[in-house]
Structure formats: structure tokens, C-alpha cells
Amino acid sequence: MKKWKTLGVAAGLAMTLVAAGCGNDSSSSDSFSEQVDYKITGIEAGAGVMSAAEKAIEDYDQLNGWTLQPSSSGAMATTLGEAIKDEEPIIITGWTPHWMFSKYDLKYLEDPKGSFGEEETINTMTRQGFADDVPGANKVLDQFNWTTDDMGEVMLEVSEGADPAEAARNWVDSHEDQVAEWTKGAEEGNGQEVSLTYVEWDSEVASTNVMKAVLDDLGYNTKITPLDNAVMWQSVANGEADAMVAAWLPTTHGDLYEQYKDKLVDLGPNLEGAKTGLVVPDYVDANSIEDLEAK
């Protein structure tokens, strides 16, 4: 009798475990779209990648009913890090270069409809007359060119707690040959002020601080000022600032470029291979925007 009682208890326990397992399977079987509650974690409203994400929501039936949640670049990165720590699903508006691609295993969702455009360049823009007023600094800005990996080194150090000026100094000191190419043939300064403006994206914080360190070493008195996107462009176009190394083209800053291009001097790309899009951790099953589901 005891034997049958024991078997009965064991069978009951087994059924309980099976039921519990089925409950977990049901929860885990929710689609990725359901797990993220049909929400894309974004950055500052008005940023180019946010406008492209809004276009994607319009372009793709799969994103019907989705919400683009604005925040800030820093808040987005924090939310991403917390999700990855717990291996939870998340989808963000992302861009390259960015330190998060050096720190985490991430992937862009394929964008077959081209809502986010093709790869971009980051260009250097100066005010009209700057080349005549400060030819040495202008030459350095014209010759400034680096890679996404170069920029990523600076951004990653900043993300780990370094002051941007310190991280830029470390990079400049450890890449003397590369910096020498930027300054080759450039007239040294004698304390002339050079004003650079930038938008407070991690990429632009990195490039602008590096350029400040290079120009300061050459004898210029370099001032850097963070501004909103539109004000950054306006300040250079109106001559309130001398230059920026932060113009994402042709998509991210395309509207602003069209608005101000006749008042600016485009020195061309200082970085190629920049990209924006929807980004997820590698452990997420989705590989394309078309893998998502409408709400």
C-alpha cells in the first residue's frame, strides 16, 4: 500500500512539474515583438536616426502599431546595458560608430526598404572665410580623417569613466604618426582662438575632443561648445562658430545640410562607413525589420 501511495505522490509531483514547465514555455513562446511590447527605445527627439525610425514605422507593415520611445543617448545606452546583463529582449535606434558595438555583441536589423538610407559619412564643415582667417587650423581640419575603430577607442574609454578630454589626449599621444598626417604642412598657431561646435553624441564628443587636443598642441586656443543639432549647423553657417566635425550625410543631417549648405564650406568626410538603423543584441532571433510583427 505504501508503495502505491509513494508512486501516486511521485506521479502527482511529475504532473505539477510538467504543468509548471508548460507555463514557462507559454511565456517564452511570446514573439520578440510581444516581449519588447512593440516598443523601440530611441534617443533624443529630432535626431536623424529618430526621423529615420519614424519613416521605418510608416514604411513597414510589420511596425504598424509600434511606439518609438524618445529618451537620450545616455539613457538608451544604460537601458541597453541593463537588458543585455539579464539577456532580455530590446530593440534600439543605433548608429555606428558607437562604443556599444565594441562593448556588446550587437547587430543591425536588415532594412530592405531602405528607410535608414545607405552608409553615411561624417563630414567637416567650416564657416565661410575661415580658411583665410586661420589657414593652419583649416588645413588640419581638412586633413583630419580616421576610422570607426579609431573613434571607437576614444568612445569606449569615455564610456568606462574617462573624461572626454583625457580619453582624447590618450588617443592623440598613442597615434603620433596618424596625427602627423593631419598636421602635415599646417602653419602653427600663436594662440588664435578656434571655436568648434558639436552635438552631444558619443561619436561627436570623441571627434571634437580629439580635434581640440590636436589644434591645441599646434598652438591654437580651441574652444568646444555642445549644442543641439539645428543650432550646431546654424552657429557655423552664421559664423558664430568656426567649424564642426560632426555633419552626418547624406541622411542624418540631410535636411540641415540643404538648409545651410550655401553658407558653409564642406571639407569632405573625416570618417566613412557611418551607419544608422534598428539594433538588437545578437541573442535576439530577429535579423530583419521584416521579421517583426505588427501589434
Automatic annotation (TrEMBL):
<protein>
    <submittedName>
        <fullName>Glycine betaine/proline transport system substrate-binding protein</fullName>
    </submittedName>
</protein>
<feature type="signal peptide">
    <location>
        <begin position="1"/>
        <end position="20"/>
    </location>
</feature>
<feature type="domain" description="ABC-type glycine betaine transport system substrate-binding">
    <location>
        <begin position="193"/>
        <end position="294"/>
    </location>
</feature>
<dbReference type="GO" id="GO:0015871">
    <property type="term" value="P:choline transport"/>
</dbReference>
<keyword id="KW-1003">Cell membrane</keyword>
<dbReference type="GO" id="GO:0043190">
    <property type="term" value="C:ATP-binding cassette (ABC) transporter complex"/>
</dbReference>
<keyword id="KW-0472">Membrane</keyword>
<dbReference type="InterPro" id="IPR007210">
    <property type="entry name" value="ABC_Gly_betaine_transp_sub-bd"/>
</dbReference>
<feature type="domain" description="ABC-type glycine betaine transport system substrate-binding">
    <location>
        <begin position="31"/>
        <end position="173"/>
    </location>
</feature>
<keyword id="KW-0732">Signal</keyword>
<dbReference type="GO" id="GO:0031460">
    <property type="term" value="P:glycine betaine transport"/>
</dbReference>
<dbReference type="GO" id="GO:0015226">
    <property type="term" value="F:carnitine transmembrane transporter activity"/>
</dbReference>
<keyword id="KW-0813">Transport</keyword>
<dbReference type="Pfam" id="PF04069">
    <property type="entry name" value="OpuAC"/>
</dbReference>
<dbReference type="GO" id="GO:0005275">
    <property type="term" value="F:amine transmembrane transporter activity"/>
</dbReference>
